[in-house]
């Protein structure tokens, strides 16, 4: 909800400092900032969400597709609409620790994610990658995951650049269904 700080001191009630900026309040992001659902340690039994998601239904876990070694899931804190991750079922932190089957299926699922995102949303391009280790920015460093972020011409507007806020036009459950329907079969 977009709220403008008032210039009327009577209406401020100590809520903020008077200035010319409008603010977009996103209190739901506080869960991410405070580390909600982050593992308590490096082992699979330490509350790793990527180990728990496969035990959920596709709808509850936001799983788009399941394979033998990996699954594709929507990011709960997306950079853009349709932001997917490909995650091995096995709790492994480093890309070099994947076995041959996991490596191949992770690559194939990345390709399938691109096909589904182009079909479902007309993505113009992609940012694809993984952060290896907390020093490299991995939010959950103990369980490898590859990001597939769809991009469109002009999608970096004033909101993320100036406001450091992403505007997502669709609920995650609706995005999950759209991408699951567009996922290549076979």
SSE arrangement:
Elements: E1 2-4, H1 9-12, E2 22-24, H2 30-33, H3 49-52, H4 58-61, E3 63-66, E4 70-74, E5 84-88, H5 100-121, E6 125-129, E7 146-151, H6 158-162, H7 172-182
Helix pairs in contact: 5-7
Characteristics of this structure?
alpha+beta, single chain, two-stranded antiparallel sheet, 7 helices, 5-stranded antiparallel β-sheet, disordered N terminus, HIT family, subunit A, 186 residues
Give me a quick take on this structure:
With 186 residues, the chain is α+β, with helices and mostly antiparallel strands. Helix content is 29%, strand content 17%.
Task: Please characterize this protein's 3D structure.
By secondary structure, this protein is of the alpha+beta class. It is built from seven helices and seven strands; from the N terminus they run βαβαααβββαββαα. It has one domain (50-182): HIT family, subunit A, CATH 3.30.428.10. 29% of the residues lie in helices and 17% in strands. Strands 3-4-5-7-6 form a five-stranded antiparallel β-sheet. It has a two-stranded antiparallel sheet with strand order 1-2.
């Amino acid at each position: 909800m977009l709220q403008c700080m008032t210039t009327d001191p009577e209406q401020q009630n100590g809520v903020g400092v008077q200035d010319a900026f409008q603010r977009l309040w996103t209190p739901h992001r506080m869960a991410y900032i405070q580390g909600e659902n982050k593992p308590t340690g490096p082992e699979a039994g330490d509350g790793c969400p990527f180990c728990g998601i496969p035990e959920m239904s596709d709808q509850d876990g936001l799983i788009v597709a399941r394979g033998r070694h990996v699954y594709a899931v929507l990011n709960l804190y997306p950079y853009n609409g349709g932001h997917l991750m490909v995650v091995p079922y096995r709790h492994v932190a480093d890309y070099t620790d994947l076995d041959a089957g996991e490596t191949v299926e992770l690559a194939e699922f990345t390709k399938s994610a691109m096909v589904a995102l182009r079909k479902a949303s007309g993505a113009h391009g992609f940012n694809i990658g993984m952060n290896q280790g907390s020093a490299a920015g991995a939010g959950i460093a103990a369980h490898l995951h590859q990001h597939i972020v769809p991009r469109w011409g002009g999608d970096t507007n004033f909101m993320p650049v100036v406001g450091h806020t992403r505007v997502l036009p669709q609920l995650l459950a609706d995005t999950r269904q759209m991408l699951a329907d567009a996922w290549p079969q076979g």
